[in-house]
Amino acid sequence: MTGWVCCFLALFAMGCSTEVKVSQYASQPAQQAQASEASKPQVELVIDGGTYVPNVKDRVQIDWHEQLTLREALLSTGKVKMKEDGAGIASVVDVGLDSKTRWSVMLNDKELTARQSFDSVISLNDKITVYAKKLDVGTSGATEPSVTLTIDGGDALNEISNSYLIPWKQSDTLAGVFAEFDLVKLSEDKTRIVQFGKHELDDKYKLSLKVNGEKVQHKDVLNMTINANDHIVLELKPKTSS
Residue 139, SS3? Predict the structure, then answer.
């Protein structure tokens, strides 16, 4: 009887030892994968909205490989959208800028000035910075008052959906804000929005406005006074949608 007990204990110990070894071997591929992931060559992208867009700041690690272009690196983050013509940045983390400001790029502390620069092949040790640049360089470093304009095109016009920061002036109205925004065209008497980008506001589209979450519908809406830091939402949808 004692012999059977000893045999059973020996088999049990062997089973435990085998289980530990299998567990160790099974964990090795996962550990190797983690080590491989950590050892991938990367470059860093710094996003800095500066004083004009102070809430837009980030650091992103980008996997690097030979022949990686600056354009590919920026788009791979999912945070940077290029303009349709590929000549510049349209928005960063869904924040676009007005016509007096633009998103600029520095590569190794040198600002890009040519479209071809976005197709430059970057090296492993290159430094990439995306930042908000004011075109009127004579301004002070203080944060300028602004309003946020969000365009909501819904599913049908998703390509126009974006958010923009627009300079605000004392006693500004909705019409005044839209006048600073290149994509919105007002009627000659400044009482109606007649076009947004390539989309004319004819019988095919309906337009609604919200200011700080509240829908505004009164007839003289474009003369409504807007305050600094207000959030304006412009919804543009086909009239067939509910």
Answer: coil
